Amino acid sequence: MGGAIFKLNFISNLIKTMTSRAEIEQIWNTITGIEDFHSILEKSENKPQLIYKHSPSCGVSFMAKQELDSSFEELSKRADLYIIDVIQDRPVSNVVAKELGIRHESPQVILLEEKKVSWDGSHWQVKGEELLSVLQE
Predict the structure, then answer these.
(1) What percent of the chain has a predicted confidence (pLDDT) above 90?
(2) pLDDT at residue 5 is higher than 70
(3) How many CB atoms lie within 10 A of CB 53?
(4) Can you give the pTM of this predicted structure?
(5) Do the Cβ atoms of 122 and 64 come closer than 8 Å?
(6) Element containing residue 135 per DSSP (H, E)
(7) Please, which residues have CB within 8 angstroms of residue 72's CB and are 6 or more apart in sequence?
(8) Exposed/middle/buried for 137, CB within 10 Å: 0-12, 13-18, 19+?
(9) Three-state SS across 55-102?
(10) Cα–Cα distance for residue pair 101/60, rounded to 1 Å
(11) SS3 assignment, position 134
């Protein structure tokens, strides 16, 4: 009997996790073209814009995205959230790096304010709490 209850709880928690994952995925706006990036740059005049460069084949990127997803609710109140798949959309990722004058990395977060990079970090620097702190300044 106890095993059956455990299985039900496990399945229930898994469904909740899957639902919240689907909701989180709706928060991220996908950048697939250079026009998208230029539009985001313009929007940064009025509201912070957060770009996350993600590699779906990289374990560190996976962990960094989970870290950001855990803070998505607060982050999305303070900035518009965008994601670039650096494998699928590498040319766009390269243009972002070149036009902003920063080195391409993955995972990488770029915070834009007033058409400029106000903060960027990569790999283990990609932390929701760190970004929330930067966005409060």
Answers:
(1) 58
(2) no
(3) 27
(4) 0.80
(5) no
(6) helix 128-136
(7) 24, 27, 81, 128
(8) exposed
(9) CCCCHHHHHHHHHHHCCHHHHHHHCEEEEEECCCCHHHHHHHHHHHCC
(10) 24
(11) helix
Q: What domains appear along the chain, each with residue ranges and CATH number?
A: 28-136 (3.40.30.10)
Mean pLDDT along residues 76-91: 94
How many CB atoms lie under 10 A from the CB of residue 112? 26
Question: Distance (Å, rounded) from C-alpha 86 to C-alpha 108?
Answer: 10
The pair of structure tokens assigned to 1 is: 């009997």
Q: What is the DSSP letter of 107?
A: S
What's the rounded mean pLDDT across residues 54-71?
A: 90
Under 8 Å CB-to-CB from 75, ≥6 apart: which residues?
50, 68, 81, 128, 131, 132, 135
What angle is formed at CA 58 by the lines to CA 52 and CA 59, rounded to 5 degrees?
100
Q: Which two tokens stand for residue 45?
A: 């005049």
- What 3-state class would DSSP assign to 51? strand
